[in-house]
């Protein structure tokens, strides 16, 4: 059994895929994240289904996305600052508790027959707000729970939670609505946060940030932005991901491909929608088997290049099964670059700035989805769905090759956190 210490944390190691789970507190955080993130995607599915059931309006469905996006940009920097000024374990418990009460409230409103669409929209916005607090605090904790040599392994395992919950959560949300009433489905969702809270509660690692605390001020709020500006490798990875995922947003157009191009109906759309998560899991498993990747910047660039290339081939594909493989490849390549990007952040960010840095990280990552959905709809209206993705593919290839040539420090970035 591995020792539950972080001694010798800079020594290279040949790691097994589950190596970081042998550190007690990381294992507890992993389990807590699995329950909380699965519950998050489960409730999103329940919310969308109930909004459409109550309103029959696609516009009202769109408002759920708006309700989710507004808190990201309204309080994202503030949430990251909290993670650097307060005890991160306490913030995790508060955010998990907030999710529990939101799900329970929606369940009670539904059971009593009082539920209206605006209740769900408010619940969606509140959920987004508490998860903005939860995510930077959770990400900031990872680096102090495992040795430095285990960071790629730990981030890969953490990414497996995200990929797995994207697949499991919506499925459980749909099954819960099939097996029970919508109100009871919300109450079941609330119960998922109980083991999540228990996992955080039983952690032994201190949650207080290192160094003397700063006071809450405009300067402290902008600490993550300043760090990102001066830490050019991290800035390049975040900016490149934001631009490529913004112009290459393919998920909103999958229903068009399923219905009008492949003619496979709802069942085929379900396969297309789940393929990225399957590919993402395969990417994470590959990194867990390979272990620590030294040339992190180079792998991120290759992954983004292949993502852009697969996007273009998918746009031209007229065979459903080939398209299914290509969509899986999009999920795989995206997961590889995401793990490299997150690992670079952990390596380059000092503990007292991790909450704010990851808040900016999350704002860019989440913002890419929102911007990408708008860009995809606009481009598809002008060029058609295949044309929109071909445009995204071309822009992605140009951007990746430009960064590759113009930013030597990015392609040379290794595990040490500096170019060789």
Describe the protein's topology:
Blueprint: H1 24-55, H2 58-85, H3 88-111, H4 117-142, H5 151-179, H6 182-191, H7 193-201, H8 218-221, H9 223-230, H10 232-247, H11 254-261, H12 265-290, H13 296-316, H14 320-348, H15 354-406, H16 408-411
Helix pairs in contact: 1-2, 1-4, 1-5, 1-6, 1-7, 2-4, 2-15, 3-4, 3-6, 3-7, 4-15, 5-12, 5-14, 9-15, 10-13, 10-14, 10-15, 11-12, 12-14, 13-14, 13-15
Average residue pLDDT? 80
Helix fraction, binned, reads: over 70%
State the name of the first-level CATH class of the largest domain. Answer: Mainly Alpha
Write down the domain tally: 2
Structural class assignment: mainly alpha
Give the distance, in angstroms, between the N- and C-terminal Cα atoms.
Answer: 34 Å
Biggest sheet descriptor: none
One letter per element, helices H and strands E, the order comes to: HHHHHHHHHHHHHHHH
Form type:
globular
CATH superfamily of the largest domain: MFS general substrate transporter like domains
Strand content: under 5%
Would you count the extended β strands for me? Answer: 0
Commentary on this structure:
This protein has 420 residues and is mainly α. It has two domains: 202 residues, Growth Hormone, Chain: A; 199 residues, MFS general substrate transporter like domains (Growth Hormone, Chain: A). It has 16 helices and no strands. The radius of gyration is 21 Å and the shape is globular. The N terminus and C terminus are likely disordered.
């Amino acid at each position: 059994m591995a020792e539950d210490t972080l001694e010798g944390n800079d020594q290279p190691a040949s790691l097994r895929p589950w190596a970081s789970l042998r550190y007690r507190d990381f294992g507890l955080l992993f389990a807590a994240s699995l329950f909380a993130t699965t519950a998050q995607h489960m409730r999103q599915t329940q919310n969308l289904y109930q909004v459409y059931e109550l309103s029959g309006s696609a516009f009202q469905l769109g408002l759920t996305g708006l309700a989710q996006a507004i808190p990201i940009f309204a309080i994202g920097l503030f949430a990251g600052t909290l993670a650097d000024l307060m005890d991160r374990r306490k913030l995790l418990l508060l955010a998990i508790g907030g999710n529990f009460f939101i799900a329970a409230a929606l369940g009670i409103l539904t059971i009593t027959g009082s539920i209206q669409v605006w209740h769900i929209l408010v619940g969606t916005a509140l959920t987004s707000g508490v998860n903005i607090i939860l995510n930077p605090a959770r990400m900031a904790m990872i680096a102090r729970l495992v040795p430095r040599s285990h960071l790629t392994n730990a981030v890969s395992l953490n990414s497996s939670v995200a990929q797995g919950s994207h697949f499991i959560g919506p499925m459980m949300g749909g099954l819960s609505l099939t097996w029970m009433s919508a109100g009871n489905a919300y109450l079941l969702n609330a119960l998922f946060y109980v083991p999540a809270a228990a996992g955080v509660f039983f952690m032994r690692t201190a949650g207080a940030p290192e160094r003397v605390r700063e006071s809450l001020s405009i300067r402290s709020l902008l600490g993550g932005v300043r760090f990102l500006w001066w830490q050019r490798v991290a800035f390049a990875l975040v900016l490149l991901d934001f631009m490529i995922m913004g112009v290459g947003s393919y998920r909103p157009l999958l229903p068009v491909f399923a219905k009008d191009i492949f003619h496979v109906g709802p069942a085929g759309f379900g396969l297309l929608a789940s393929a990225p998560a399957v590919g993402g899991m395969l990417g994470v498993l590959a990194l867990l088997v390979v272990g620590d990747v030294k040339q992190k910047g180079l792998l991120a660039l290759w992954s983004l290049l292949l993502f852009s290339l697969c996007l273009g081939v998918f746009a031209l594909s007229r065979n459903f099964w080939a398209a299914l493989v290509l969509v899986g490849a999009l999920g795989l390549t995206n997961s590889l670059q995401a793990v490299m990007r997150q690992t670079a952040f952990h390596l380059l960010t000092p503990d007292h700035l991790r909450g704010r840095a990851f808040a900016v990280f999350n704002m860019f990552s989440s913002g890419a989805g929102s911007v990408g959905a708008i860009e995809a709809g606009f481009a598809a209206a002008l060029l058609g769905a295949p044309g929109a993705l071909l445009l995204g593919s071309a822009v992605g290839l140009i951007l990746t090759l430009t960064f590759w040539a113009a930013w030597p420090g990015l392609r040379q970035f290794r595990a040490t956190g500096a170019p060789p």
